[in-house]
Amino acid sequence: MYDVVSGSFIPCHTMLDVGVDWEGDQILPALHKLSSAKVKSASAGKYSDGGGLWLVKREDGGAQWVLRVTIHGRRREMGIGNLQSVSLKEARQAAETWRAVVREGKDPIKERDQQRRLAARESHTLASVALEAFEARKSQLKGEGKAGRWFSPLELHVLPKIGKIPVEELDQQDIKIALAPIWHEKADTARKAMNRLGITLKHAAAMGLDVDIQATEKAKALLGKSRHKAQNIPYMPWPEVPAFYASLNEQTVTHLALRLLILTSVRSGPVRFCRLDQIQDNVWTVPAENMKGQEGAVNDFRVPLSDEAMIVIEQAKPFERDGYLFPSVRKGVISDATMSRLMERRSLAARPHGFRSSFKTWCEEATNEREAVVETALAHVVGNKVERSYRRTDLLERRRELVSRWADHVTGRDASKVVKIA
């Protein structure tokens, strides 16, 4: 007997397993031959439900639905799913769907693969891949990126506009459209967003997706050179610092925090989150997660404390709450803007971060200290990777001498260099 399902002659006893109906001279495969009870109780073997749908049970207890079809003279078998997850009814529905594809002259396996590729492309939107890239990069970011600053340029200015585009379809025109409104007006934010986009595209390429990793560079060419000119944070000339320091004479959290910031030349973040348990003897150990998120800032940073700095810490202890030396009025610690607003209210152009420049300029103009010591005092990465691998010291004692001299200047002990400010 000739089996239209398999396309070959088969013995009569096998034909009984296949099951056929007759219509004139045409042999039609019988459908729905299996029952739920038979599906459940059948031992290892192959069982036809008709229409090319087979249940294949293995010796190990596993079972799978298989659809056999012939397309363009070629025998094809496609898995429809395992018995545990696909019921008899669902298998029959799927089989009919794919038989309809065959009737249209299409290969069902190729059609299914194409559908899966399209579905995967739609699921790999720019937004989803950007979030995945962010998750993969968290360990390199300050506080594992919990503050969200790494992701925010994309979240605010890019993803609302082009986040739904499949990342494989993203091109320079899409990026240009997203960043054009802020390219000149918010140049720093636009630069960060472009950087994050580049990282996202590289991450997508690592996932095996077909992306244009040059899309960001092409977008920059379309957007043109930014008209925005970067401005450095205003700083206070070092001869004026003693007079300002002397004016911080109130026993308040803000005054004390500013005084410690000036004396140690660290950034405002570590000062605001300074805890008593970070200070032992005359060394303040800033945890790595409180340091600026940059390459190389992966270790705790030791800050030598001058006698004046220790005095400030003692004066701040009565304000301590939950271990923090500089708590806010309500909860947590003082905000990033608290110290800046104090200087703004005094009509000063300088800002707290600028005292790092004050210290650096003082080192260059009033001392002969080596650059490596000065840069280390500012928690900057010194030297290339090879040089850093051989360096086994953080120059703590050399820095201690330097900050002590700086404290002498700040407190006015070096009176000959002091310049009064209005």
Automatic annotation (TrEMBL):
GO terms for molecular function: DNA binding. Residues 231-404 form the Tyr recombinase domain. Keywords: DNA integration, DNA recombination, DNA-binding. It comes from the Bacteria. InterPro entries: DNA_brk_join_enz, Integrase-like_cat_sf, Integrase_catalytic, Integrase_DNA-bd_sf, Integrase_DNA_bind_dom, Integrase_recombinase_N, Phage_int_M, Phage_Integrase. SUPFAM superfamilies: DNA breaking-rejoining enzymes. Belongs to the 'phage' integrase family. This is Integrase arm-type DNA-binding domain-containing protein.
